[in-house]
Write a structure and sequence with these properties.
By secondary structure, the chain is of the alpha/beta class. Helix content is about 45%, strand content about 15%. The chain has 2 domains: about 140 residues, Rossmann fold; about 110 residues, Rossmann fold. Bound molecules: D-glutamic acid. The site of D-glutamic acid has 16 residues, from helix 3.
Length: about 260
């Protein structure tokens, strides 16, 4: 057993879609959440720049003595997770676009993968499409701009509905019956997507990733003692108050402690 915290990071609020499941599944873990809002959004940035941020963040989390890191960001997982694993001596759990479950659940034989450019242009995405998407038509849908709406508290607005429509209409018209939420910000747009495209199946891998993290902790003998009280510490590279307000808008209690950056 290990009472040290787990590090979780994303460019902003997106990783909270993973964190909410992790906290439910492992309520006695201490977590330090790093929101890299000074560099938000990651999606349009060159992979080398995202990788540099990922290394700086993990370095900072390691200084807070984290025992594991959840890369709760598809874009950062695509550009950095393999290299992070080579360099840092802690286990990493990251995001992989849910092409496999989408292919399994599609009845039409056509699926849409909604993600940032950074994710869709990366090798990891190409690899999962090559491995699991052969029997199915896989349509890549660029969602750049969608994460900004979530980050700025605009999920559930007409603006979000219009943006979702613009990103997905051509794939749905081409026959996609399943949409992969390939960015951790997008689960917060679920109601907008279903409102715009009723009946479409959504693939959200955030809960599976949280489960995997719990499993890795158990297998590595790193799980928190059962009597430990869970805690949430926050490191925000940009404006802290703005980030707390964005958290609150998504239903997260902003009662977490601040960890000095
Ligand atoms: N939440 C991030 C992801 O999963 C990226 C959003 C962004 O910063 O562009 O890809």
């Amino acid at each position: 057993m290990d009472s040290r915290p787990v590090g979780v990071f994303d460019s902003g609020v997106g990783g909270l879609s993973v964190l909410r499941h992790f906290q439910r599944l492992a309520p006695n873990e201490r977590v330090i959440y790093f929101a890299d809002t000074a560099y938000f959004p990651y999606g349009p940035r060159p992979p080398a720049e995202v990788r540099k941020r990922a290394f700086a963040i993990v370095d900072r989390l390691i200084r807070s003595d984290v025992k594991m890191v959840i890369v709760a960001c598809n874009t950062a997982s695509a550009s950095a997770i393999a290299d992070l694993r080579q360099v840092f001596p802690v286990p990493f759990v990251g995001m992989v676009p849910g092409v496999k479950p989408a292919v399994q659940s599609s009845a039409s034989g056509c699926v849409a993968i909604l993600a940032t450019s950074g994710t869709l242009d990366g090798d990891l995405y190409q690899r999962v499409v090559d491995e699991f998407g052969r029997s199915t038509r896989v349509i890549s849908c660029h969602g750049d701009g969608l994460a900004d709406l979530v980050e700025h508290g605009k999920a559930g607005t007409p603006e979000a509905r219009a943006a979702v429509r613009a990103s997905l209409t051509s794939a749905i018209e081409a026959g996609a019956d399943t949409v992969v939420l390939g960015c951790t910000h997008y689960p917060f747009l679920e109601a907008d997507i279903l409102g715009e495209f009723p009946g479409v199946r959504l693939v959200d891998t955030s809960e599976a990733v949280a489960r995997r993290a719990v499993q890795v902790l158990a297998e590595s003998d790193l799980a928190a003692p059962p009597d430990q009280a869970g805690q949430l510490g926050l490191i925000v590279s940009g404006d802290r108050e703005q980030f707390r307000a964005a958290m609150a808008a998504l239903g997260f209690e902003p009662r977490s402690e601040e960890v000095p950056a």
